[in-house]
Design a protein that fits this description.
Blueprint (H helix, E strand, L loop, with lengths): L3 E12 L2 E12 L3 E5 L6 H8 L7 E6 L2 E3 L5 H4 L2 E4 L11 H12 L3 H10 L15 H12 L6 E5 L7 H16 L3 E5 L3 H7 L2 E6 L2 E6 L1 H8 L2 E8 L6 H11 L5 E5 L2 E7 L4 H11 L1 E9 L2 H9 L1
Parallel strand pairs: 3-8, 3-9, 6-7, 7-8
Antiparallel strand pairs: 1-2, 1-4, 4-5, 9-10, 11-13, 11-14, 12-13
Helix pairs in contact: 3-4, 5-6
Length: 307
């Protein structure tokens, strides 16, 4: 894209001698969904809190929409950024409408916008209920509504779907994709690698206060070159196991793998020039039960970075 809306350079942060960030460098392009992936304590939330002015960095620089940010965000820039952190900060004794009205007044937002958001996030039927009676998923959806009141250009979601019911999580994921269609920039910190793979244009792997790598999910997976055919065969119980193993060792390549369990042969064939020839030879000898293509996923990429 090469149209950065956020530029983070050499960001460092210490907490009582513990170096939480050790020179974070990251460029975020306008209109993209970028995922921040990493284990607990990697530095994801600290980076986001510095980005939103909730913490100040010890070293480094941040530019947002071309403007340098030192410690506090200027008012005009705050209005351009919507933030949803993992912990809830709603007013639990107020209902959903009043929670949004409170912030709508600050941002000069119309009642129509409140009604629109409640409808989009499937909260219209619970709009007059006290928030303390909401499920975790409903609270999270309301927090996103609040973050979107002023129609920000940037939305930051820290573990937005963590621990939510499937319905709430899916509503949020679909809305994230629709925000991209509207040209919004979304920064998504998540533990769910499948979610990042589905939603994100790029992902940044962060660990021990550093960005290890940034790229498209597909590019990371392609580098692993993990692609194989997984087959299951029924084994005749009268066949000799030694003969079966001898046959397989004569057919399979070094990178292929197999296991024999309870009369079933599980076979993993790597994609190479002999793939179909190997599959045909085994299928001619044993009864095929199942076949599927398996490719590398972000979990494998994540594991590689954290080993």
């Amino acid at each position: 894209m090469n149209n950065p809306i956020i530029e983070i350079r050499n960001l460092e942060k210490n907490f009582s001698g513990f170096k939480a960030l050790k020179g974070i460098n990251l460029q975020i392009d306008r209109g993209e969904i970028i995922g921040l992936l990493g284990p607990n304590g990697a530095g994801k939330t600290t980076t986001l809190k510095i980005l939103t002015g909730l913490l100040s960095a010890d070293q480094g620089s941040i530019k947002i929409m071309g403007s340098s940010v030192n410690k506090k965000l200027p008012g005009w820039l705050k209005a351009k950024i919507g933030v949803v952190f993992e912990e809830s900060n709603l007013y639990l004794r107020l209902n959903a409408i009043d929670n949004l009205k409170l912030f709508a007044g600050i941002n000069n937002v119309s009642k129509a916008r409140i009604a629109e958001l409640l409808s989009e996030y499937k909260l219209q039927d619970a709009a007059k209920k006290e928030v303390r009676n909401f499920s975790k998923g409903m609270k999270k959806r309301l927090m996103i509504c609040r973050a979107l009141l002023a129609e920000p250009e940037i939305l930051i979601l820290d573990e937005a779907t963590g621990g939510l019911d499937p319905i709430s999580a899916e509503i949020i994921r679909k809305k994230v994709l629709s925000l991209k269609e509207e040209g919004k920039t979304v920064i998504l910190s998540t533990h769910y690698l499948e979610e990042a793979d589905r939603l994100c244009d790029r992902v940044a792997f962060i660990n021990q206060g550093k960005v290890l790598a940034v790229n498209r999910p597909s590019a990371f997976k392609n580098k692993l070159q993990e692609k194989y055919l997984e087959l299951k065969f029924l084994i005749d119980p009268d066949l000799d196991l030694k003969e079966i193993k001898k046959f397989l060792e004569g057919v399979l390549a070094a990178k292929d793998d197999y296991s024999l369990q309870s009369g079933v042969l599980n076979l993993k064939l790597n994609f190479d020039q002999q793939l179909f020839n190997k599959a045909e030879r085994v299928a001619a000898k044993f009864k095929l039960l199942d076949l599927k293509k398996v490719e590398a996923d972000l979990q494998q990429v994540f594991n590689n970075f954290n080993n």
